[in-house]
C-alpha cells in the first residue's frame, strides 16, 4: 500500500531518447481506482488519454512526436469534485 500525502504532477519532460525524463508519469495516480487523464494541445484536441490504468506518456500522438510546447491536462477522479489540471511542457 502506498500512501500519497499529495498528488505531485510533473510539469515537464524531455522525450529526446537520452533515458532521462523521457516520459511523463504521475506515480500518485496509482492511488485512484478510477480516473480519466486527458492531455490537450493548444487547439483543444485530445492528444493523450488514460482511463484507470497508469502508463508513461512518451510525448507522441498517433505514433508521431508532438512539437515542443505546453499542453494542458485534466485529471478527473471520483474521489475529488474538482479535477486536477495544469500544463505540462514537452522539451526536446
Structure description:
This protein is 0% helix and 37% strand. The chain is an all-beta fold and 92 residues long. The strands form 2 sheets. A 5-stranded mixed β-sheet has the order 1-7-6-2-3, with no helix packed on it. The mean pLDDT is 93.
Helix content: under 10%
Give me the secondary-structure category: mainly beta
Strand content: 35-45%
Largest sheet: 5 strands, mixed
Order of helices and strands: EEEEEEE
Mean pLDDT equals 93
Q: Which residue ranges are poorly predicted, with pLDDT under 50 across at least 5 consecutive positions?
A: none
Q: Compute the separation of the termini in Å.
A: 35 Å
Q: Count of helices?
A: 0
Calculate Rg over CA atoms. Answer: 13 Å
Q: Count every beta strand, where a strand is a DSSP E run of 2 or more residues.
A: 7
**Spatial order of strands in the largest sheet:** 1-7-6-2-3
Write down the overall geometry.
Answer: globular
Main traits of this protein?
globular, five-stranded mixed β-sheet, 7 strands, 92 residues
Fold topology:
Blueprint: E1 12-13, E2 35-40, E3 46-51, E4 60-61, E5 64-65, E6 69-77, E7 84-90
Parallel strand pairs: 1-7
Antiparallel strand pairs: 2-3, 2-6, 4-5, 6-7
Summed up:
The protein is an all-beta fold and 92 residues long. The protein is built from no helices and 7 strands.
